[in-house]
Amino acid sequence: MKKLFRATSIGLFAATSAGAQVQDTIAGKSPLFSGRDAVILAGFTLGAAVAAPLDVHFAELLQKPAAQQNRILGRSATAFELLGVPGTLVVGVGLYIVGRVDGQRRVQDLGLHGTEAVVLSTAMSYGIKLLAGRARPYVDIRKPRNFRLGRGFSGDDYQSFPSGHTTAAFAFASTLSRETQMWWPESRWYVGALAYGGATLVGVSRMYNNLHWASDVLGGAAIGTLLGLKVVKYHHSHPDNRIDRALLKGQLSPPPIPVPLVTLRFR
């Protein structure tokens, strides 16, 4: 389990450090991709490189009778799996509806951009799944390198890479973390840690259920994090884009005090 934590934390560190610097929400247009994105991608690539040779080890570790017969672990895995899909979409759409009904522009931002990031990253990960054709661990837990181009079209058994649930979870986590940092810089120590920590557990739950390899989880985390950050950056550096103009209502104003979102009304 220590090895699993170390490999996963490499990607997680890259993700949490990605939004460390706060930008103005009305900043001028800037390049959508930057050198920092390359650093994030390199961090996830390093994590995947560390995890890949240990795919079988992690899979067998989580499939041991002691782990599989533990009711707490089993129920937690189910809960976190649902949090990834459909949980991220439910929360995103819910936030948008609440913000729209109550006129809270920042809550609308969170919901709309989070949902957009989940949809885009999920679509990308599914396309990669179809092309990569990687067999899931339950097909043969001793063959983690079982890839075949295009085999994903033949069925779910060969759609292991990357993990779609993890992709969705990290897309929402990165969007939530980055959005809140724009008006509450200190939130990266609270919202960011909670969001990325939850997303990591979504990935572990998929491994516990023998549906993904560790490297599938790192791949999904990379896709979700990068796309989530790009969605936020695009919208906030192009405030006149059609999507925001059509779907976001109300004016932005600074929050009165830096306290958790649940106690604020952002009018």
Can you give a write-up of this model?
The chain has ten helices and no strands. The chain has 267 residues and is mainly α. The chain has one domain (2-19, 29-252): Vanadium-containing Chloroperoxidase, domain 1 (Up-down Bundle). Helix 1 (2-18) packs parallel to helix 9. The chain is globular, with a radius of gyration of 19 Å.
Outline:
globular
DSSP summary, beta strand count: 0
Tell me the distance between the termini: 45 Å
Radius of gyration, Cα only, in angstroms? 19 Å
Mean pLDDT: 84
Uncertain stretches of 5 or more adjacent residues: 4-27, 254-267
Query: How many domains, in number, for the residues?
Result: 1
Output the structural class: mainly alpha
Instruction: Just name the CATH architecture.
Output: Up-down Bundle
List the secondary-structure elements in sequence, H or E.
Answer: HHHHHHHHHH
